[in-house]
Design brief:
The chain is mainly α. It has a single domain, classed as lambda repressor-like DNA-binding domains (434 Repressor (Amino-terminal Domain)). The protein is built from six helices and two strands, in the order βαααααβα. The chain has a two-stranded parallel ribbon with strand order 1-2. Keywords: DNA-binding. Pfam families: HTH_3. This is Helix-turn-helix domain-containing protein.
């Protein structure tokens, strides 16, 4: 049985929904801009390590917990830098 692939943004979005945060609330709590939250959730951009730490802070969890959540999804696809920049260009 083939499992669905999941992008890192979907995990971030799922966590945000579980905390009942909108993007603005997560941005405020993490010290990030709302636009970067949107880019991550829509898989336009993968989060850097420092952004991952900021997101964990925004969720009120340890970075290791967020990374474990990501690791627990072996079908996870993380966009490479080139893919994320050129994703919507022809």
């Amino acid at each position: 049985m083939k499992k669905e692939t999941m992008y890192i943004g979907e995990i971030i979005k799922r966590l945000r929904f579980s905390k009942q945060f909108n993007q603005e609330e997560l941005a405020f709590r993490s010290g990030l801009g709302r636009t970067i939250i949107s880019y991550i959730e829509t898989n336009v951009q993968a989060p850097s390590l420092s952004t991952t730490f900021a997101l964990a802070k925004g969720f009120g969890i340890k970075a290791s917990e967020l990374i474990k959540e990501i690791e627990d999804n072996p079908e996870l696809i993380v966009l490479k830098e080139k893919e994320s920049k050129n994703r919507f260009t022809k």
